[in-house]
Amino acid sequence: MMEKQTIQLEKYQAAYTSVGQGIPVILLHGFFGDGWTLNPIIQELKDDYHCLGLDLLGFGDSSKPKINYLIEYQVSFLREFIQAKNIKEFYLIGYSYGAWVASAYAISQEKLSSFNNLTINKSDTIGLVSQEKSTLKKMVLMAPAGIRDDKFVGRYNHLKPLLWESPLVDFGLDIISPIAKLIGQKKQFDFIREVRQSLINQPVAKAMLTNRLKPEDAVDTVDKNIHKITIPTMVIAGEQDQTIPLWHSQTYANNIPQAALEILPDADHNLIHTHSKKIGQLIKKYWQK
């Protein structure tokens, strides 16, 4: 696996992977990922495209500022990355959380002024750019998040104790570890410990779990604006996805004017790993139309 590269933006550092040749394709990962998360898809596309796997703000090796991580900050971060790399035209692929960012970016192309006139705290400002100099040709959204769904309320409350930055939590986990092994729950316990480490090391997850789980916190979902997306968009969903319900993908496909929906019957939220070859074929066929 190639090492990540970094580039300094106006305020923050962006880390990214770079593989292949041709028209640039920017890939945006999911909630617990980084630039390498979509590597199975990159491997399917690298012979025909220049694939750039971006670590979004607060993820991987990109900067991790102490901000609230609203989606518009990720949009501005993506826009600055595109301009810093001097990318003139490109394709965009987003997975889960990354698809939310991708769709918000596409919306921002239609109404840049709505992003540039936002009233935000000075400490949260990441240099909103007023001019768009790059052309997004087509977009792919895989298992896209970003649709308001009040059924998510309370779903992840049980994870909040894992955010406590106290040695007592780790001490308690150390005590429970041998017990979990004795009762045959070692695998589940190890998963909980991995989740804790991911949450502690990932400020976006912390911001989401502490500030974004009530209906009134859904201030930047895109369901009311996706009809403004004018570029051709393919939505790919796993019919068995228990993380992002199928109707979220259908909402995207039904409301984006130039959208095509592909449902993989035997796929779940891990479709980028289990169905990478099929997804690669769908993407190339769609882009080459």
Q: How does this model look, in words?
A:
The chain is α/β, with parallel strands linked by helices. Helix content is 37%, strand content 17%. An eight-stranded mixed β-sheet has the order 1-2-4-3-5-6-7-8, with helices on both faces. Helix 1 links the parallel strand 3 and strand 4. Helix 5 packs antiparallel against helix 6. It is globular and about 55 Å long. The protein starts with a strand and ends with a helix. 36% of the residues are buried. About 6% of the residues have low confidence.
In short:
The chain has 289 residues and is α/β, with parallel strands linked by helices.
SSE arrangement:
Elements: E1 5-8, E2 13-19, E3 23-28, H1 39-45, E4 49-54, H2 71-84, E5 89-95, H3 97-110, H4 112-116, E6 135-142, H5 167-182, H6 186-201, H7 203-211, E7 233-238, H8 246-255, E8 259-264, H9 271-274, H10 276-287
Parallel strand pairs: 3-4, 3-5, 5-6, 6-7, 7-8
Antiparallel strand pairs: 1-2, 2-4
Structural class: alpha/beta
Instruction: Write the element-wise H/E pattern from the N-terminal end onward.
Output: EEEHEHEHHEHHHEHEHH
Q: What's the assembly state of these chains?
A: single chain
Total helical segments: 10
N-end to C-end Cα span: 31 Å
pLDDT under 50 segments (min length 5)? 113-123, 125-130
Report the β-strand fraction as a percent range.
15-25%
Q: Give the tally of β-strands.
A: 8
Radius of gyration: 19 Å
Main beta sheet: 8 strands, mixed
- Largest beta sheet: what is the strand line-up? 1-2-4-3-5-6-7-8
